[in-house]
Amino acid sequence: MHQGWFPVERCHRVAADVVELSVHAPALARSAQPGQFIGLGVGGEAFALLRRPMGVSAIRGERLAVSFRVAGAGTRWLAARRPGDPVDLLGPLGRGFPDLGEDPVILVGGGVGVARLLPVAERARGEVMALVGFRRGGQVFGIERIRRAGGVVRVATEDGSEGRRGVVTELLEEAIAEGRPGRVLASGPRALLRAVKGICVGRRRPALLALEGQMACGWGVCLGCSTGGLLVCRDGPVFEAEAVEL
Amino acid sequence: MSVQRATFGRVGTVVSGIALKNPVFAAAGTAGFGESVPYDLSLLGGIMTKGTSPDPWRGNPLPRVAEVPAGMLNAIGLENPGMERVAAELLPGLARHDLAVVVNVVGRTLDEYRRVVAYLSPCPRVDAFEINVSCPNVSEGGLAFGRDPAAAAAVVAACRDVTAKPLWVKLTPNTLDPVAVAEGVVRAGADAVTLINTVLGMRIDPRTRRPVLAAGVGGLSGPAVRPVAVRMVYEVARAVDVPVIGMGGIVTAEDALEFILAGARAVAVGTANLVDPWAAVKVAQGLEAFARREGLDSLDALVGAAGSRRP
Ligand SMILES: Cc1cc2nc3c(=O)[nH]c(=O)nc-3n(C[C@H](O)[C@H](O)[C@H](O)COP(=O)(O)O)c2cc1C
């Protein structure tokens, strides 16, 4: 765990409502693993004290990125950072995805949650199938990065404007029915994770879920994110599907 | 960022016979039992542990934390594994560090407080107890004791019977007359008072039209409460003859000095640890740097220097 101020390298919109903030932070980037998160301090009109926990969305050498939806004054401030601006980072935090070696994986992502799966796709040495779901076509992001990394991508949108009309869990049911091998790694809203858990536990398919939790500290002391005795920040945010109450 | 091991020559002090290499504690509930702290705990004067009850407590439903300007609300509900696991699994981790260990004690009844103190008193690693009669986040006990001088005194008297170790009492700001409560617990045998615990507060989400915290109300902490805390330390320190340990919104050494000048012999850093895990060490190092700059060999002369004892 490190804390410090690091310069922004790039801050740009990757989809209608998702901003990617890339930072030159060697100390954090070198030790960060996919699935881990960073606590970002925010400035601006909110006099905000607490950090915003955000999953790592890219790890490249001395740089790392997080991706987020602008939801309030804090994320609005972050989205307005320009190259060279310093940002206050704490991390890497939590336990990320384990190294799966050359095993195949099925990534299941919903909305901005897709961002946390991108570094998994980029580091995987086995076959990657990524199933990603969004509400509308304009929200789709990340699929080029997965394809460039050699992954197969299937998209579902609820309005049908891109890929299949429907939800991403339907794509997962199909992939499993087709006999697609591999552990399932999922990231997205609670409802999605709950559905993925239901599908995978029922079919004895091993699955890892990347949770989000409301937390004050991110490093295991405030107990704000405790679920069934486990802390999302310290024991997770990545959990075995059977191990976690959703 | 890593913090270098520093020498603390000028800011050491003594509270209840416990030598502190510097007057800075990590406040209860903001550093656990030190198990996740990313630096050598021996850099701190001491740690106040997470509130410990006789049996495990599950805490409140989520959400338990919410943000407010310059602070936060929490309604953790004193989730903790109970005194037996604390003794077996958590206190041993503190054994190899050189700092004061103060166990924060919580209970729903007088007897629960007494049981925790009696059980943990023989632990060699426990230097003192901090009796928490001020937690706003449990439905029974806690604040109910801390608002009433007689009830708070009864808790202290019950604990006094079962330990010879120092008993510190953590006071609440959620009462009209904190001085009366402080005087009551001192008469019952408290060796020091610590304050403030969190200030009762609430947030409501206009979209859902519901309280933000699942528990409804919670405790406000962080810089937002600092002036309230400084004022209460000032009032209490002028009224009692035992040491006062001040806390509430301390982020920097300068903040800590406000408390010392108000009458605190030592201070604790709470919410700031959540934002910067190194915050308490930075405050300790900042106090040392201040003493060096000012040519002071001790901070003792500053304790309460902002005002004199009530005539
Ligand atoms: C997340 C959290 C947990 C806390 N847990 C405890 C506790 O277990 N026992 C206790 O006496 N006080 C507890 N407190 C109160 C703090 O120890 C401290 O008295 C208060 O927050 C004011 O100081 P601060 O503004 O520096 O945080 C807690 C505070 C926070 C923010």
Short description:
By secondary structure, chain A is α/β, with parallel strands linked by helices.
Distance between the termini of chain A: 27 Å
How are strands sequenced across the largest beta sheet of chain A? 10-9-8-7-11-12-15
Tally of helical segments of chain B = 9
- Largest sheet of chain A, if any? 7 strands, mixed
Order of helices and strands of chain B: EEEEEEHEHEHHEHEEEEEHEHEHH
Oligomer: heterodimer
Stretches with pLDDT under 50, minimum 5 residues of chain B: 1-6
Strand and helix map with partners:
The complex is a heterodimer of chains A (246) and B (311).
Chain A: E1 2-15, E2 18-24, H1 26-31, E3 37-40, E4 52-60, E5 63-69, H2 73-79, E6 86-93, E7 105-110, H3 118-123, E8 128-134, H4 143-148, E9 152-157, E10 164-165, H5 168-177, E11 183-187, H6 190-202, E12 207-210, E13 226-227, E14 230-231, E15 238-240
Parallel strand pairs in A: 7-8, 7-11, 8-9, 9-10, 11-12
Antiparallel strand pairs in A: 1-2, 1-6, 2-5, 3-4, 3-6, 4-5, 12-15, 13-14
Helix pairs in contact in A: 5-6
Chain B: E1 13-15, E2 18-20, E3 24-26, E4 46-48, E5 65-68, E6 71-74, H1 83-90, E7 100-105, H2 110-120, E8 128-132, H3 143-146, H4 149-160, E9 167-170, H5 178-187, E10 192-195, E11 199-202, E12 204-205, E13 210-211, E14 217-221, H6 226-239, E15 244-247, H7 253-262, E16 266-269, H8 271-275, H9 279-294
Parallel strand pairs in B: 3-4, 3-16, 4-7, 7-8, 8-9, 9-10, 10-15, 15-16
Antiparallel strand pairs in B: 1-2, 5-6, 6-14, 11-14, 12-13
Helix pairs in contact in B: 2-4, 4-5, 5-6, 6-7, 7-9
The site of flavin mononucleotide has 27 residues of chain B, from α8.
Name its key features.
heterodimer; A: 246 residues; alpha/beta; Elongation Factor Tu (Ef-tu), domain 3; Rossmann fold; 2 domains; 7-stranded mixed sheet; 6-stranded antiparallel beta barrel; 6 helices; 15 strands; B: 311 residues; 8-stranded parallel beta barrel; 4-stranded antiparallel sheet; 9 helices; 16 strands; globular; disordered N terminus; binds flavin mononucleotide
